[in-house]
Design a protein that fits this description.
Elements: E1 3-5, E2 11-17, E3 21-26, H1 40-44, E4 47-53, H2 71-84, E5 90-95, H3 97-108, E6 113-119, H4 131-147, H5 149-159, H6 161-169, H7 173-182, H8 186-197, E7 213-218, H9 224-233, E8 238-242, H10 249-252, H11 254-271
Parallel strand pairs: 3-4, 3-5, 5-6, 6-7, 7-8
Antiparallel strand pairs: 1-2, 2-4
Amino acid sequence: MPYLKTDDRARIYYEEHGTGTPLVLAYGIGGNATMWDVNVPGLAARHRLILWEPRGHARSDSPDDPAKYSFERWALDLGAVLDHLSLRRAHVGGLSLGAGIATRFALRFPRRVRSLVITNSSSASGLPLSWQNVVMRARSIEVTLTQGMDAMAEFAMTANPNVSERLALDPSAKAEFYEEYRQLTPIGYANSLRALLAMDHITDDLPKLRMPVLLIGGDRDPSLPPMRVMHRKIRGSKLVVLSPASHFANRDQPEAWNRVVLDFLAKVDKKR
């Protein structure tokens, strides 16, 4: 399996598919590269698709020290992925946490971002979390560290609306969520949640984004209102809402999701 090492010696997992202009994606908190499996064939048919797993997730390293986790650190890790693959510029993005990372990377290193693809993400908006979300995430840390990942999966399926809405659309996804959480280490997931709770609020900086920006939401996704804020803040951004779709729109509507992304990237590549 391919890995790279960051400047602080953390191992980051990535994988490549297809050829063409590079598209670099990361999944949401607790997720992994396999969560893109329904999208890979379509995306890789036109692009050099690079999927990576942020520290604290699945096959990437999960440092014990919470100080080694932050959106700033994750954004630097994304830069390390591009550097390792000798990519000066790329389309970058992700789902949820992955999009939050990509947005901060785009703000810090705009010349390296050909376009920004944001799907189902409140962290990308940089808005403060609701008190209900803060309580749920804090409880998630406790469950993770005291009861383990199966218990965390069960808690998420009842307490996290991002997850419960996906199950309402597809009850068979229950096995998928167990598998997702079982790929995590408790300390890596807990530290990632701590970084999410401590995220920087970048909402006022969003108008600085000048590259093409695609926003994809789900009609049943709690992240849709923050994404509408992003749409208002980022001049020229495009917002597409898929239906029916939860926080996992790429899995709820894979063909429609791929079509939106590929059409957007084709237009960007044609202009440059």
